[in-house]
Write a structure and sequence with these properties.
It contains eight helices and six strands. It is α+β, with helices and mostly antiparallel strands. It has one domain: SH3 type barrels (Roll), CATH 2.30.30. Strands 4-5-3-2-1-6 form a six-stranded antiparallel sheet. The longest helix has 14 residues.
């Protein structure tokens, strides 16, 4: 199994910006472009873009009424969304805990591409069946141009191409081809 497949469905939180490596802070203002509210929430890796860069979706407690509620996937023990027939489940961690202690949803209408180095792994991950369902749902919904493609090898936006050093891009594409 490839590293990128292992990452899918893992739950992370963001490290404090003071703990980011200098290069991660500077990557043409990543710190300023990544909304603070996103950095305050846990996230789930929904795809890999390239070596050491992942696409994440935010875990949230509430549904924003300005967006289609079907773009918020309930995480067990929240009830399954009848319209989408979706509910994600977390696998048990090494202590036997199997989830978050508060009602949660995965917000998939807004995905963020970030370097893995600014993320700190949490003890949870989605069950394999939930990862498969999530991948299918994102593809079926046709969420932003990068979202569907990030469930494998992603297409880089012009903004990301400007952020990432050329040598890292070349190494990443070689890695993805292997």
């Amino acid at each position: 199994m490839r590293d990128r497949d292992i990452l899918l469905g893992r739950v992370y939180c963001f490290k404090k910006p003071v703990d980011w490596k200098q290069g991660e802070k500077i990557k043409n203002g990543l710190l300023h472009r990544l909304p603070k509210i996103v950095r305050m929430h846990r996230v789930v890796v929904v795809g890999t873009v390239m070596l050491d860069w992942v696409k994440v979706a935010t875990i949230t407690k509430t549904i924003d009424k300005n967006f289609d509620h079907n773009l918020y996937i309930p995480i067990h023990p929240m009830r399954k969304n009848n319209a989408t027939n979706m509910q994600l489940q977390l696998a048990r961690d090494s202590f036997g805990n199997n989830g978050l202690t508060y009602p949660s949803y995965l917000k998939i209408h807004e995905l963020h591409t970030v370097p893995r180095g600014i993320l700190k792994e949490e003890p949870w991950r989605l069950k394999k069946s939930s990862v498969g369902s999530l991948r299918s749902f994102i593809n079926r919904m046709g969420l932003d141009a990068g979202a569907a493609s990030t469930l494998g090898v992603g297409v880089l936006s012009d903004e990301l191409k400007d952020l990432i050093p050329l040598d890292l891009l070349l190494r990443s594409f070689e890695y993805l081809r292997s």
